[in-house]
Amino acid sequence: MSTSAHIDRFVIEHLPPVAQWPELIFERPELQFPTRLNATTELLDRAVAEGHGERPAIIGKDIHWSYRQLQQQVNRLARVLVEDMGLVAGNRVLLRGANTPWLAACWLAVWKAGGVAVGTMPLLRAKELKEIVSLAQVSHALCDASLAEELVAARAESPGLREMLLYGSGGELEARAAGKADTFDTVDTAATDPALIGFTSGTTGIPKGTIHFHRDVMAMCEVFPRHCLKPGADDVFIGTPPLAFTFGLGGLLCFPLWARASTVLLEKLAPEPLMQAIAQHQATICFTSPTAYRQMAGLVGTCDITSLKKCVSAGEALPTDTRDKWREASGIQIHDGIGGTEMIHIYIASGPEDYRPGALGKLLPGYRGMIVDDEMNPLPPGEVGKLAIKGPTGCRYLSDERQTNYVRDGWNLPGDAFHMDEDGYFYYHARIDDIIVTSGYNVSSPEVEWALLAHPVVAECGVIGVPDPDRGQIIKAFIVLKPGVKGDDALTRTLQDFVKHTVAPYKYPRAIAYVDTLPRTETGKLQRFRLKTAT
Asked: What CATH number belongs to 439-534?
């Protein structure tokens, strides 16, 4: 590593041992980063220096900032962090708020000042925030005043959280920033200085903090956007994933700035407001979840979304039926992808031009992948096993023994079951934890979910395996029905027969429960582990 700019070395000293890191690959020319690198310099300051200062950058409620105006706000915020809050390079700064221009500016200011950003989902409660503050030894926080209550409660039991400023209605951050000069000397960070800690609960509910460097932020911009999405400066990005989720951080902040495009940040993340905002702002690129696309398909026609050209789905598996319904309604073939907080963003994807039915896609340039068995032996095409990935990014957990579960022999093991065909297309089956073994057959939860979602009365569903004395496990489906549909024994038999005629008969759900809602994360990801604990 080159010499770190971090004075506070907590994160650096709590990286896993280098021997436990995945092998990192930087063979491609666009991934040859200099030893000194700051993500805000590359994404924002360089854009202004290149002549994009007057172009629109970030749009929110009553805010339209050009690149130059965004740069000025970021510089002022960086001064508040350093001059008023005493931030030194390497301090952790918790960021809490809905997607707004001010939250985006806070992210960029933390990086510019040499801090380590710790994004948190808006719905987290005090107990969860306290865990994150403790694990990351957070010393500073910038929080939307409307979400301050839970953080204030967490702070009362977190003596290490020394400084906190609120923004928005009732906050003082904007007023503090207004009194600062609009220039700031960017901290001379190393490319390998930590820039963020992304917390993920995965399928277990136990938080893990993943450390990513300034180099990793730029690497994600040089892979999926460059080689698959291919945005231009005239594009307008929009979507629903929170900036605290690396899918949202990339798709709604870093990728637009990298392309010198603009981004619309929405506080309300539901499908209907998203559709209305697409029409209002003439958005061209949308990032959201499979569940949202399924719901939005029924809303096409209520808004003029003809400006929309490209749609990206990630966060959970995209059912074929959802892809088809969105294409039929909108005329747009979805860019599908899989990534993860541990890898920072997408590493396998497909665009409309290389989509193969049933496949998720191919490895993006810069990444290598294979399907392996439990002993890390490569499996032949067509055989289901564990996905192993390596490339310019990889997993580095913050002081977590689970590092050795995720990284093995230099490969990242995200915990997904895939098979690969002879042409290099990857086919998703399930999370390893979501493989159901019933009567000796291996069945993936998503496959049964996709079969059920193809039935016209099913709005949402989640499928798990539950213990059974005769079969080991049986397949159980939790189903949210469309309005006006009654869940009864007759419908259960109808749905079971439908699945038997859609996929192999042994994959039908022997138990079906009708529910009003399914447990999901703020990013829309189904939490099957909560279904398992509820049975």
From this structure: 3.30.300.30
The pLDDT of residue 503: 84
- Take residue 366 and report the two structure tokens written for it: 């810069």
C-alpha dist (Å) from residue 13 to 10, 136, 330: 5, 12, 50
Q: What are the residues whose beta carbons fall under 8 Å from the beta carbon of 433, sequence distance 6 or more?
A: 203, 415, 528, 529
DSSP, residue by residue, 346-412: -SEEE-GGG--TT--BEEPTT-EEEEE-TT-PBPPTT--EEEEEEBS----BSS-TTHHHHEETTEE
CATH 3.40.50.12780 spans which residues of the chain? Answer: 10-420
The pLDDT assigned to 203 comes to 43
Is 90 exceeded by the pLDDT of residue 533? no
Share of the chain above pLDDT 70, in %: 98
Residue 434 contacts residue 528 (beta carbons within 8 Å):
yes
Sequence ranges of the chain with CATH classification 3.30.300.30: 439-534
As a whole number of angstroms, the distance between CA 237 and CA 242 comes to 14
- What's the burial of 92, exposed, middle or buried (CB within 10 Å: 0-12/13-18/19+)? buried
pLDDT, one tens digit per residue, over 477-500 is: 999 999 999 999 999 999 999 999
Edge to edge, the sheet with strand 458-468 lists 458-468, 472-481, 511-514
Asked if residues 24 and 394 have their Cβ atoms less than 8 Å apart, the reply is yes
CATH architecture of 10-420: 3-Layer(aba) Sandwich (3.40)
Q: What is the rounded distance in angstroms from the CA atom of residue 9 to the CA atom of residue 6? A: 6
Which of the residue ranges 59-63, 294-298, 435-439 would you say has the lowest mean pLDDT?
435-439
d(CA 90, CA 97): 22
Quote the percentage of the chain above a pLDDT of 90.
82
Judge contact between 487 and 252, C-beta under 8 A: no
Whole-number pLDDT of residue 504: 81
User: In the prediction, which pLDDT does 40 show?
Assistant: 98
Please give the pLDDT value at position 1.
52
Q: What is the C-alpha separation between 130 and 126, in angstroms, rounded?
A: 6
pTM of the entire predicted model? 0.88
